[in-house]
Design goal:
The chain has 136 residues and is of the alpha/beta class. It is built from four helices and five strands, in the order H-E-H-H-E-H-E-E-E. Strands 1, 2, 3, 4 and 5 form a five-stranded mixed beta sheet that branches.
Length: 136
């Protein structure tokens, strides 16, 4: 079964796009996240919390066993390792839990797709699709 057929059988719960950098900070990658000061990490999470709260209105809940599909969208052709955007995926998923839109993230699954390039973009973006593991 190819991936398209697999996801066609699942229910798309939510899709949204967020910037990969908040307030002109450095691009959050797996290479620099570990060495980022805990106060800076907290500030970044708080900035994402404010943004994500606008996507999850009216107490909308995400199932704990969701499948997240992450697709980075870059504004330039610079080569990047796909795994580098895992740090921003972690921040965003943690923030979804912090907003109360998902109770826990211990049962989630993730698919990190290779980045796409769109030179018309002003900033790097992360497209997120969240699927329920319950079949349609």
């Amino acid at each position: 079964m190819n991936l398209n057929n697999f996801f066609d059988q699942l229910e798309l719960v939510k899709e949204f796009t967020v910037p990969m950098m908040m307030n002109k900070n450095k691009l959050c990658t797996i290479n620099n996240w570990a060495s980022t000061h805990y106060m800076a990490k907290s500030r970044i999470k708080n900035e994402y919390k404010e943004l994500l709260m606008s996507f999850f209105l009216d107490g909308e809940k995400i199932p704990e066993d969701s499948i997240f599909v992450w697709t980075p969208e870059y504004k330039d052709k610079r080569r990047r390792d796909s795994i580098n955007s895992a740090a921003i995926a972690k921040v965003i998923e943690d923030t979804i839990v912090i907003t109360g839109s998902m109770i826990d993230d211990n049962k989630t699954s993730h698919l990190l797709l290779p980045g796409t390039v769109d030179k018309s973009l002003n900033e790097h973006l992360m497209n997120i699709k969240i699927y329920s593991q319950s079949k349609k």
